[in-house]
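Question (not urgent): is this output format expected?
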Amino acid sequence: MRRPTLEAVAARAGVSRATASRVVNGQTTVAPHIRDAVLRAIDELGYVPNPAARSLVTQRTDSVALVVSEPGTRVFSEDPLFSTAIRSASMELEAVNKQVVLMLASSAKSHARVERYIAGGHVDGVMLISMHGADPLPAALSRLRVPVVSYGRPAVPVDIPFVDNDNVGGAEAGVRHLVESGRRRIATIAGPQDMIAGQDRLAGYRNVLRDSDRRSIVAVGDFTRESGAVAMRQLLGDDPGLDAVFVANDLMAVGALQSLRQAGRRVPDDVAVVGFDDIEAAKYTEPPLTTLRHPVSEQAAAMVKLLLGLFEGGAIDPVILPTELVVRESA
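Got this back:
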């Protein structure tokens, strides 16, 4: 059977092809009774709009690129941030009849590929996640005049709306909890310093130690479990007397707990541990992990709402979401 055409819909509804096209493309300049007649004809005939033709008329693709500046081995790893953010953004877009095009951009070659794809008009807007250092994409996409929003404050000076959580305030709350519990030699395993989250959480740690007359003891990881284990061993070697550690994300904290256990250190008796993110695994570590709850799903949903606001041409302000200290047995 041949697919029903727009002409067949117009004939069944008793209207012109142009009127049927306006209804199909969601225009509001059609009388309600005529709209109902066209929609009824669409239902009776089983008409499905041709997406390519519809895009020519509406100048919209109803697709949004979700660009993650990480390799596939990181995105599709044990880190739940990526799967949670992608799932939440996809659900929010699906609710408004838009789809996600997932693109990975961790090299100069992939940056160029992403830029060409978006310049080709294949998507209506872009959401950026996990940007590092002087990532060229924010500035490049801004020059293309395509709507762009960022999951996290951009590390480069570019005028892009963003949604972030209070990384500095969250870190301060976690370290302050350790200070108030009487810990004196508080170390940190910081996140990568080419990422805003890593920089801000380290800044929050240092703010509290400076105000409480304690010295900083710092090792740096890359937000993976293995890097947390390595950094914890380094810290124990540098300062065997440390009695607490603030870890810039929960995956690194899981690795740190493993190293502490292997070194014969009891948690929290000998060393208290505080993480950041409150991933599901934080409830099931040994002991359960005290951490800062980072609202990943809410942040991704807010990013989608920012982008939809840009589609409407509105003025968009950055959004900062609060974090929450979740006290468990590790501290």
